[in-house]
Amino acid sequence: MRSATLESSSQKSYSICRRFSYALIGVVTLILFSFATIAIFNNISRASAELEKRLDNVSSLAKTSLSTPLWNFDRDVVANFIEALLADESMVYAQVVWKGQVIVPPKVRREFLNKDISYFADSSQFIVKNIDVSYEGNNVGTLQIAMSRESIKKELRLNILGIITLTILIIAAISLTSIVITRRYISRPLLALQSSAALIAHGDLEAAIDISSRDEIGSLAQDLNVMRGSIKELFGALHESNTKLEEYSQTLEQRVEERTAALARSVAELQALREVGQTVSSTLDLHTVLSTIVSYADQLSGTDGGAIYEYDEPTEVFHLRATQKFEPEFIAALQATPLHIGEGAVGRAAATREPIQIPDIFTAGAYQGRLRETLARFGFRAVLAVPLLREDRVVGGLVVGRKSPGAFPSTTVNLLQAFATQSILAIQNAQLFREIEERGHQLEIASQHKSQFLANMSHELRTPLNAIIGYSEMLHEEAEDLGYADFLPDLQKIHAAGKHLLVLINDILDLSKIEAGKMDLFLEAFDIAPMVQDVITTVQPLAEKNANTLAVHHADNLGAMRADLTKVRQALFNLLSNACKFTTQGTITLAVACDTVDGVAWLTFRVSDTGIGMTPEQMGKLFQAFVQADASTTRQYGGTGLGLVITQRFCHMMGGDITVESALGQGSTFTLRLPAEVIDAKAAPALRTETVTASALPEEAPTVLVIDDDPTVHDLMQRFLSKEGVRVVAAASGAEGLRLAQALRPTAITLDVLMPGMDGWTVLTRLKGDADLADIPVIMLTIVDDKHMGYTLGAADYLTKPIDWNRLAGVLRKYRCERPPCRVLVVEDEADMREMLRRLLEKAGWVVSEATDGQAALACVVEDRPNLILLDLMMPEMDGFTFVEALRQQDAWRSIPIVVVTAKDLTPDDRQRLNGYVEQILQKGAYSQEALLHEVRHLVAAYVQPERPGPEEHSHGAEPAGGR
After folding, report:
1. Tens of pLDDT, residues 437-493
2. Count of Cβ atoms closer than 10 Å to residue 284 Cβ
3. For the chain, is the Cβ count within 10 Å smaller at the N or the C terminus?
4. Report field, pTM of the whole predicted structure over 0.85
5. Residues 6+ apart with CB under 8 A from 154
6. How far apart are CA 648 and CA 14, in angstroms?
C-alpha cells in the first residue's frame, strides 16, 4: 500500500514537471517559429529586390551599349551582346526586334528551344522585360529578355531550410535545459517531500524531512516538519490523558473495599467523566462541552458554582467561556474584569502550574486580585482553581467556589484535575477546528483568486492570439496574391494552431467561470430533434475523418425542452467528438429517449462507440480537470482533458448528470440525463413578459422588438412607434428577448442597457454572435423613469472582438460612400487591432485615419470629416461614450455612421465599466425622455423604410447610420 502511494506521488510530481516543461516548450516554439516566418518573408523580399535590380542593370547596359550598333545595323555586335547576356545562368531568352521584325535571331537556352517570348511571358516561373533602345531620340529596336526565377528559389529553399534547422536546434536546446532544471529543482525535491509525507501519513512520525532547501519547497518542508511536531504533541497529550485516567481508575479499584461508603460518589464521578468524554468527542461546540464539564465539576464537588476560562496567549488574558450557578450580575462582573497570569486564584494556578485553593478569601493576603470584593459581594468565601495545561503551556483554568469557608478535600482537587484534562481536550479541539476553518477559508479565497487569475489570463492571452490569427489570415491572402504557394501550408498551420489554442483558452475560461460560480444559464425553449440534427451535421466531418459511421436513433415525437441550448449542444458535441477521436472505422451511435420519473420529464442522450474503450482505473480519472486516461492516450490522441469536465459541470448546473460504461477494447457509452424543464437556482423570479401589438395594423406591418424590464417603457414605445405603422412586441428580460428575436426576426430591436440579470451588453453579444440575427439593427437605450431622463448610444452597427472579417466586409459595403475613395476613422487604443483594421480597410479601398482615444478622434474629425467611424467603447483619456456625446454637439457630424466594436466575452469589470459610463451620462441629463423617444421614433422610421436613404437624406438625427 505504501509503495503504491509513493508511486502515485511520483507520477503526480513528474506530471507537474512535464506540464511545466511542455508549457515552456510550447511558448518558446511559438515565438521561434514566428521569428522564423518573419525571416523567411524578409529573404523572399530581398531575393525579389535583387532580381529586379539585375533586370534594371541589364536595361541600363542595353540602352547604352546597343543604341549605336542598332543604328548602324551591326548585327555582330548585337549578337555578341546577347551572347554575353546568356552567360548569366538566370537569363534564358534574348532577342532584338524593331517594328515587329526580328533583327537578330533569338538566343535561347537548350532546354527552351522552339519557345518564343510569349511562352515565358505566360509563365510565373520567368520575368520578361522589354527594353526600348533609342539613338538620338529615335527608337532603333527593342531588346526582349526572359529571366528564370529558379536560382532565386533554390537560394530561398536553402535559407528556409537553414532557418528551420536553427529554430529546431534552439527549441531542442531549450527543451533539454527546461527538463533538466525542472527535474533537478522541482521534481526531485517534491518527490522527497511527498515520500516523507506518505511515511508520516502511515504513522512513521520519525520520517526524515529535508528542510535544507531555501526555496518555496523548503518552506513547505519546514511547515510539514512543524505539522509533524504538532501531531506528536497531540498524541503525547492524548497518551498523558489516558495514563491519568488509567491511574485514577486503578486507584479507585485498589481502594474500593476501604472506601465502600464513597462508592456511589466514585461511580457518579466516573459516569460524569464518561459523559463529559462523550460530549468532547461528539461535538466541537466549545460552549456546550465546557458548560457540561463545569456543571459536573460543580455537582460532584458539592460547591456553589464554577467557571472555565480560556487563556489567550497573544493578549495574555483569561476569557470566561462557561459558568454554573452564577447570577447574571456576577457573570457580567467577571466578564468586565479580565484576569492575567498571577492574578486571582486562576492566575496563580496558571503561574505555579499547580492547583490553588483559598479556604477563606477574607484571610489577610490569601486572595490577591481585583475580584476579591466582587466574590465577597455575592457571598463566596472559598475558591479552588486548577490550571489547564498542555505540555506546560497554559490553556485556561477551571475554578469552583463555595459560600462557606474551609479547605477542599483532595478528592475534589483530583476530580477537578480530571475535568481539567477533558477541558484541555475540548479547548484544543476547538482551537484546531478554528484553525481548520481558517485554513478552509484561506483555501476558498485561494481558489477564488486562482479562478480570477485564469479568467484574467485567458482574456490577456486572447489579445495576442487574435492578432496571430488575424495576421496569419492576411499573410495567407497576400501569399496567394503574390503566388507564393510554398508558404501557404505553413501559414495554414500557424492559423490552425492559433485557433486550436484559442479553443483551449476558451475551455479554461469556461472551467474557471464554473469553479468561481460565474457561469450563468440562459434558459430557452427549443425543439430537440432540430438541435440534435445540428449537432450531427457539425460532427459528421469528424466521423468521416476516421472512416466512422454515425447513427442517430430517436422517436419522431421528441418534442421540446427548456434548457440552455448552447450548453446542451456543447455537451453533446464534446461526447460525440471524443467518440470520433477514439474510434477508427467503427460505429458511433447517438440515442435520444424521453421518460418520466416521479412526475418529472427527463431526456436521456446516450453516445456509444466501438472504439478503444477504457479500464476501470482510467474511468476513475475521466472527470478530473486536465487529466486524460493515461499519458499514452494523450500522446496518441492529443487533447487537454477539459471537455468531459466541462460537460459534467454543465450537466450539474442544469440539474442532470453524466455516467459512463466502458470495457477495454470494446468501446464506451456515455449517458447524459437532463430534465426537460431546467430550473436555474441562481435566477431571480421571472420577470413579467408581455406582448403589445399596435391595433389596426396589417399583418405585413414591420415589427420592432422592445427589450426592457420596465413595463412603462413598453407602453411609451408602443404609443410613439405605432405612429410609424410598426407593430411593437415587448420582452421584459434579456432571455425572453433572445427567444422572440429568433422567432419573429424583427425589423429592428430596441435594447435596454441597464437590465437586471442578463444586461443589455450580454444580449447584444448574443445577438451579434448569431448569424441569423446579426444583421438586425439594434438601438441601445436606457430610460430612467424617476428622473424622466434617457440615453441612447448612436451606433449604426456593432461588431465583436475577435472581428469576423466577412461581417466587417458586409458592414463596409453597407456604408460605402457614393464617390470613392471613402474615408474611415478607426478609434481603438490597441495598436495591433488598429494595424489589422488599417491593412484590411486599405485593401478594401478605404482611406484610413487612426486615433487612440476619443480626444484624438475628435481632432481627426475636425481635420478631415470621415465617411464612417469604427469605435471602441473602452479607451483611456476620453472613452467611446464621451466621444459620441461630443460628436452629437455638431450638426454636421451627426450623420456620420458609427460602428461600435465591443469584446465578445465581457468580464464583470468590463460590464461594470460600460454600465458606469451610461450611468454617468444619465446623471449629466444628456436627454430628456421626450427628446429620446422622438429620436428613437426617427431611427425606427428610417430602419423600416424599404431602402436605406442616401447620405443627403439624413438629417436631424433620424438616419440609422448616424442616429443616436
Report:
1. 777 777 777 766 766 666 566 556 666 777 677 777 778 777 888 888 888 888 888
2. 16
3. N
4. no
5. none
6. 27
- C-alpha–C-alpha distance, residues 278 and 828, integer Å: 70
- Cα angle: 160, vertex 166, 170; to 5 degrees: 145
Cα(398)–Cα(387) distance, rounded to whole angstroms?
A: 6
Give Cα 396 distance to the centre of its chain: 49
Q: Using pLDDT thresholds of 50, 70 and 90, give the confidence band for residue 592.
A: very high
Residue 685: other Cβ atoms inside 10 A = 5
Residues 6 or more apart in contact with residue 832 via CB below 8 angstroms: 463, 464, 467
- What is the C-alpha to C-alpha distance for residues 651 and 605, in angstroms, rounded to an integer? 12
Q: How many CA atoms lie within 13 A of 737 on its CB side?
A: 33
> What radius of gyration do the chain's Cα atoms show?
42
What residues pair up with 388 in beta bridges, in sequence order? Answer: 396
Taking the C-alpha atoms of residue 741 and residue 703, their distance in angstroms, rounded to an integer, is: 10
128 sits in which H/E element: strand 126-135
| Four-point Cα dihedral 323, 326, 329, 333, nearest 10 | -50
When mean pLDDT is compared across 580-589, 631-640, 673-682, 913-922, the lowest value belongs to 913-922
Nearest-angstrom CA–CA distance, 496 and 476? 12
Q: Within 10 Å of residue 360's Cβ, how many Cβ atoms?
A: 14
Q: 355 pLDDT exceeds 70?
A: yes
Closest CA to 879 of 925, 916, 836: 916
Residue 189 near residue 210 (C-beta atoms within 8 A): yes
Q: Is 670 helix (H, G, I), strand (E, B) or coil?
A: strand
Handedness of CA 155, 156, 161, 164 (dihedral sign): positive
Residues 6+ apart with CB under 8 A from 60: none
Q: What percent of the chain has pLDDT over 90?
A: 5
Q: Which range, of 168-182, 255-269, 694-708, averages the lowest pLDDT?
A: 255-269
Q: Which residues contact 517 (CB under 8 A, 6 or more apart)?
A: none
CB 304 within 8 A of CB 403: yes
Cα angle value 229/234/236 (rounded, 5°) = 95
Which residue, among 38, 122, 158, 59, has the nearest Cα to 51 in the 3D structure?
A: 59
Across 721-744, average pLDDT: 82
What does the CA dihedral 751, 757, 762, 764 come to, rounded to 10 degrees?
-10
Buried b / exposed e over 29-39, threshold 16 CB at 10 Å, is bbebbeebbeb
d(CA 740, CA 691): 10
Say how far apart CA 318 and CA 348 lie, in whole Å. 12
Measured distance CA(771)–CA(742) in Å, rounded: 11
Phi, psi of 919 (to 5 degrees): -65, -40
- For residue 936, the model assigns a pLDDT of 60
Q: Report the alpha-carbon distance of residue 652 to residue 650 in Å, rounded.
A: 5
> Coil, strand, or helix at residue 558?
coil
Peptide bond into 802 cis (omega under 30): yes
How far is residue 723's CA from residue 733's CA, in Å, rounded to a whole number? Answer: 25
DSSP 891: G
Residue position matching grid coordinates 504533541: 233
Size of the chain in residues:
964
Q: What are phi and psi of 154, to 5 degrees?
A: -60, -40
Among 131-140, 441-450, 822-831, which is the least confidently predicted range? 441-450
Three-state secondary structure along 342-362? CCHHHHHHHHHCCCEEECCCC
Phi/psi zone of residue 825: left (φ > 0), alpha (ψ -120 to 50 degrees), beta? beta
Strand-pair partners of 660: 670
Check residue 184 and report its DSSP letter: I
Beta bridge partners of 554: 592
What DSSP letter does each residue of 52-68 carry, written as one string? HHHHHHHHHHHHHHSHH
Percent of the chain's residues with pLDDT above 70: 77
